[in-house]
Amino acid sequence: MIAALRRSRSRAAACVYLAADATLPEPAAAAARPLHVLLATDHARLALLPWSPALLRPSHWQTYAASRLEQLHGTPTQPWTVRVIDEPPPHPRLAAALPTALLEALGVVPAPHAQAVVRPRPAQVRLELTDRLSELVAKRRLASGVLVELNRIFATVATLRDGVLVGLRRRRIDRAGAAADAQAIAATVAAERAGAALEGAPIWVAARQVGDATAAAAALRSAGLPAELSPC
């Protein structure tokens, strides 16, 4: 469901970016040609699951992920579909919960009572955060550092060590309190770098709007952190 290792270049496909407040494509339009969808990270509830040798099957990871996501984000008010990104031991695994209604509209999961005439073709769906992390690893071989991704609702702080995701923190963004947000994000980044023993590692800042990323990077540098714009 969340494939982030490559970008399709098929001209026959419709490429769509869905922000948190985006309008979903109409089923009839979606059925016209395959969809390649990049989802804003705001759509997902995330959890980084530490490796456990007791989790022997994918179903065990699914159960653990659902429990952990509920602990972090509370009981969902609408149906969610949970997926766990497979990683070799002993690496942590990223779990993501996405609204089932969204995935039904994109044809990723079958919608109950859907009419075949308007059912969309299955979409290739990527999550923006995992896309960025995969590109960072590809461009900065064995990447170590902290990625700060700014969306409309959340700021996500993801820590990479030798190309492996080892830390994940999120906080809501209050556009009216940008200065307070910058201070809180800087404190989170500093704590994540220290916790992963990456005090000298780079900090990459990414956002859909270059101005947002530039302002956030400047705020982090003002806090004494060597932030730069993400290459991805």
In brief, what are we looking at here?
By secondary structure, this protein is an alpha/beta fold. Helices cover 30% and strands 27% of the residues.
How much beta, percentage-wise?
25-35%
Which ranges are low-confidence, i.e. pLDDT below 50, for 5 or more consecutive residues? 1-11
How far from one another are the termini?
21 Å
Q: Which of globular, elongated, flat, extended, rod-shaped describes the shape?
A: globular
Structural class: alpha/beta
Kindly state the mean pLDDT as a whole number? Answer: 85
Order of H and E elements: EHEEHEEHEHEEEHEHE
Strand numbers in spatial order across the main sheet: 9-8-7-10-11
Radius of gyration: 18 Å
Architecture blueprint of SSEs:
Elements: E1 14-18, H1 27-30, E2 35-39, E3 45-49, H2 58-73, E4 80-84, E5 93-99, H3 100-105, E6 124-127, H4 128-139, E7 145-150, E8 154-161, E9 164-172, H5 178-195, E10 203-207, H6 210-222, E11 227-229
How would you describe what is shown here?
- This protein has a five-stranded mixed β-sheet. A three-stranded parallel β-sheet has the order 1-2-6. A three-stranded antiparallel β-sheet has the order 3-5-4.
- It is of the alpha/beta class and 232 residues long.
- The two termini are 21 Å apart.
- The longest helix has 18 residues, at 178-195.
- The chain is globular and about 50 Å long.
- It has six helices and eleven strands.
